[in-house]
Design a protein that fits this description.
Layout lengths: L2 H7 L2 E9 L12 E9 L2 E2 L4 E6 L4 E4 L1 E4 L2 E5 L15 E8 L2 E8 L14 E2 L8 E4 L4 E4 L3 E6 L8 E7 L4 E9 L4 E6 L7 E9 L4 E3 L3 E5 L4 E2 L1 E6 L4 E6 L5 E2 L3 E8 L3 E8 L7 E5 L4 E9 L1 E2 L1 E6 L4 E6 L5 E2 L2 E9 L3 E8 L8 E5 L3 E9 L4 E6 L4 E3 L2 E9 L9 E6 L5 E2 L5 E7 L6 E10 L4 E10 L7 E8 L13 E4 L3 E3 L14 E7 L4 E2 L15 E3 L19
Parallel strand pairs: 12-19, 21-27, 29-35, 37-43
Antiparallel strand pairs: 1-2, 2-3, 2-7, 4-5, 4-8, 6-7, 8-9, 9-10, 11-13, 13-16, 14-15, 14-17, 17-18, 17-19, 20-23, 22-24, 24-26, 25-27, 28-31, 30-32, 32-34, 33-35, 36-38, 38-41, 39-40, 39-42, 42-43, 44-45, 44-47, 46-49, 47-48
Amino acid sequence: MTCAMRRALVTLLVLFVLVLSLVPASRAPGTPYTVRIYVTLEGAPLSGATVNVSLPKYGVSDTAAEIDPGVYDVNLGNRPYSNVSWWHGDTVRVDVYYGTYYEWATQKIDISEGYNLFTFDLEEEQYPPHAPAHPSPSHQATGMSRDVALSVEVFDPNGDDLTVRFYNASGHTLMGTVADVSSGSTASVSWSGLAFNTTYSWYAVADDGLFTTQSDTWEFTTREPRIYTLTISVDPSDGGTVTLDPDRDYYYEEEKVTMEAHPATGYVFDRWSGDIVGTNACKNITVYGNKTVTARFKPVQYTLNVTVDPPEGGTVACDPPTGPYDAGANVTLTAVPAEGYVFDRWQGDAAGNANPLNVTMDANRSISAHFAVNVPPSIAILFPPNNSTVSGAIAVEGTASDDNGNHTLHRVEIKIDDGDWQAATGTSAWHFFWNTTGVSDGPHVIHARAYDGHVYTENSTTVEVCNQVPVTRHRVRWAPHPWIPRNPDPGNVSVITQDDAVNFTVSSPRRDTVSTYYRWSWWNESSGLYEFWPTSDTPGAVNGSEITVSSHSSQIQYNGDSPFWEG
């Protein structure tokens, strides 16, 4: 954290109170005082501060004791110098220390106000950073290379992070800046592109945000350059050429050279061999000695190796039939399964099950055609269920699969009864729309079959087509509460059909209660079940209600406060 940042965050509030210690104002001269100091940091009481209180006039001082967090006391009359006579107007000095923070203040003793109060900010005392030291390279070093790493050690008494700048002493040109350098650590920059056999001078400046300190000026000398040769050849001689940048008969030590191989027509660059190796046609090198290098080229051709798995599963036809193949050539592979086998997939440098397969020869390739024993496909009809009743337009749905892989499914077909086969939509998951109004009411058979390119597998389901509105018989009954007398036939009131209306009213002969409990339900002839309604905690008004029977179970709610009678 920089000094500027620390001052922005820290404010110490000191309240300095001189309190007369239980002595009337008439005994002012020489009366002991309790000096109380309140110290806070960012609004919170600060413990652990060192607080010194002194009477400069008499050359005496003492340390205030912390009696509560942030509260410090000292009694001028209860110390070794209590025999000192003081008077109104004498000055008391308070010095407060906390880490590297320090502040002081004075106040004259004046009991006429009961106590004296003032505030001040406590700030850290700032010191400039030390001059950067321990340079590298050392002063007057010789034999340095053309690329030098400059470094110095820096230190700040306040522990601040430092910004270190490096300068070329010739012209005082800034060469680099390193920010946020910890006190006691090293800062470094690179000085590159220097000339051989040349003396350079430099210095560094440490900056803590308030102060800057410059180092001594140091110097070093680069060494004499060595001279090397770079010998280039190509193989085969007509395979291509090599360019050098720069292109000279000799090169200085540490000089950068770019070698680039250019293949002739019909060749590609293969590799570098000799003192420099690699497969990149463009090669950047730094010369540190004599080098002999060969650029190797090769004709542009690729091989294609085709196999089958298992060997008896089939064959693969290649067009064109033989290689090697020129770069970019297109080769068509066609897998031909043997009897009882199906083509499954490509493996190796090809994937998927496209047949035939187009291969672009841009590298050497090895491809295998995998065949599998043919297994008939399977097919299932999921909707409508067998022996179900259907009407109107429906979607016949199902699935198909093949142990040889669903990609071997060619198609799914549907027919109704003895009709023609028609294509369904989809294979592994398929559907077919059928308008049942085109056939008579009654039983019909839905046939479905799947084809894998070799055999068909068929399945079927039988449904009942019913496009007429059925008459459903219902019975109405009611189940009374034990408090209510039962009907002569409480179980079966009437037998009705769908869409019939029922009128009813209910009453209770009990006069000593306002609550009547009963249940009312429909009975469906087809299911043979009653569903009682309502439960005892579900109210509803039904007195004098009219309901219409639907094809599903219906219930009538009740009102426990309704009068009851049968009608």
